[in-house]
Design brief:
411 residues, alpha/beta, TIM Barrel, Lyase, Ornithine Decarboxylase, Chain A, domain 1, 2 domains, 12 helices, 30% helix, binds pyridoxal-5'-phosphate, binds lysine, pyridoxal phosphate binding, lysine biosynthesis, pyridoxal phosphate, lyase
Length: 411
């Protein structure tokens, strides 16, 4: 649902008055409910749900998911640091990504993560060497590229052979055979991730079937795996998408895994937090251009990049009480790029000073934000019933500039 935030009675005006805008607002209850849906749908399989930190790595959000029993899917040493600071369990943390640096691998080994999702033979060799130096055995899973079309935006499709991710399907068996010869590795699993914002179940099932063919071939070679990781979660509703039913997904997975001794792992991000968050913004100006109307707001592509980057649709609600007649406009930010838009040709009622809520901005919004145009990062608030908590202060200009200012002397 795009309107998960409505499950809380959110005092938008009061929050805007207290913290200013732009402001990310998250519903704790909506996050819990989204996780419950996974836990209930997959209950019979007792999965390890590893929240994908990249979707939204705010420490308080990570702490909430950690308290609910989640593990974490990380893609950098920075994300591992977040998990640790939030009190997450590193033994439930898996490390994905094609470009893990030696420093990151060492950091992860020191912190005894659950496993590395290894994406190349070169990475296998590097992890083995570092583990040897540290006197450790690194648990590893191989991320296999199943060459399945996830039917999503090309920038977030990851399971095609043209994509940089994973070990090529036809090289998988040889890669496992090699891994078992490396003395500082312990092969524990197999994983794949075919893309994000998936609105169709069939590619997910096809990818699982292809993974299981490999599991069977490996068993014939006496390479027994402990777990299978199916990657990210299902897509969410931004507009009117027909998103997969989790119960149907779980039933198909249960059928395919039945009789096998494989622990299931899942790495959902968007579906746990996307609809639980919104971005509150104030209308600065209404402008009538020669061809178009513009609603100019105080948020921009630096706070929510998805419309500019993927032409993504986000619903926009006017949450101010007195509004005007509707008109058609582009909702744009102050950034000096024509690509800086939050919505195109949207029918909207808005006037200067109104508060607009850009919905479904819990995932890949704050976590992809930048300081472009020297804009300070927005504050974030977590709402729980009648309580709310500031979980990130609005960045100040002096914080934004401090690093470079401290280097000025050296020029
Ligand atoms: C390896 C990996 N795992 C998990 C995710 C999370 O995906 P989603 O947010 O669609 O659940 C991603 C993002 O696409 C990813 O690249
Ligand atoms: N940033 C993307 C999702 C990336 C998924 C990461 N593999 C989005 O907003 O839709």
């Amino acid at each position: 649902m795009t309107d998960s935030l409505k499950c809380e009675q959110i005092p938008y005006c009061a929050l805007a008055a207290e913290y200013g805008t732009p402001l990310y607002i998250y519903s704790q209850q909506a996050m819990t409910a989204a996780l419950n849906q996974y836990q209930q749908a997959f209950a019979s399989l007792h999965p390890l749900i590893c929240y994908a930190v990249k979707a939204n790595g705010n420490l308080s959000i990570l702490r909430h998911f950690a308290r609910l029993g989640c593990g974490f899917d990380i893609v950098s040493g920075g994300e591992l640091e977040r998990v640790i600071l939030a009190g997450g369990d590193t033994s439930k943390t898996i490390f994905s990504g094609v470009g893990k640096s030696s420093t990151e691998i060492e950091f992860a080994l020191h912190n005894n993560i659950r496993c590395f999702n290894v994406e190349s033979l070169a990475e296998l060799a590097r992890i083995n060497t570092i583990a040897a130096r540290l006197g450790k055995i690194a648990p590893i899973s191989l991320r296999i590229n199943p060459d399945v079309n996830a039917h999503t935006h090309p920038y977030i499709s990851t399971g095609l052979k043209a994509n940089k991710f994973g070990i090529a399907y036809q090289d998988a068996i040889a890669a496992y055979q090699l891994a078992t010869t490396l003395p500082h590795l312990k092969v524990t699993g197999i994983d794949c991730h075919i893309g994000s914002q998936l609105t169709d179940l069939s590619p997910l099932i096809e990818a699982l079937e292809r993974m299981l063919l490999l599991v069977d071939k490996l068993a014939e070679l006496n390479i027994e795996l402990e777990h299978i990781d199916l990657g990210g979660g299902v897509g969410i509703v931004y507009q009117n998408e027909d998103v997969p039913d989790l119960a149907a997904y779980a039933a198909a997975v249960a059928r395919l895994l039945s009789g096998r001794n494989l622990q299931l792992m899942l790495e959902p991000g968007r579906s746990l937090i996307g609809n639980a968050g919104g971005l509150l913004t104030t209308v600065e100006y209404i402008k009538q251009g020669e061809e178009k109307n513009f609603v100019i707001v105080d948020t921009a592509m630096n706070d929510l990049m998805r419309p500019s980057l993927y032409q993504a649709y986000h619903n926009i609600l006017n949450v101010s009480t007195a509004t005007t007649d509707e008109f058609v406009a582009d909702v744009v930010g102050p950034i000096c790029e024509t690509g800086d838009f939050l919505a195109k040709d949207r029918t909207i009622a808005a006037k200067e000073g109104d508060l607009l809520l850009i919905q479904s901005a819990g995932a890949y919004a704050s976590s992809m934000a930048s300081n472009y145009n020297t804009r300070c990062r927005a504050a974030e608030v977590l709402v729980n019933g009648t309580d709310h908590y500031l979980i990130r202060r609005r960045e100040t200009l002096s914080e934004l500039l401090a690093n470079e200012q401290s280097c000025l002397k050296s020029v």
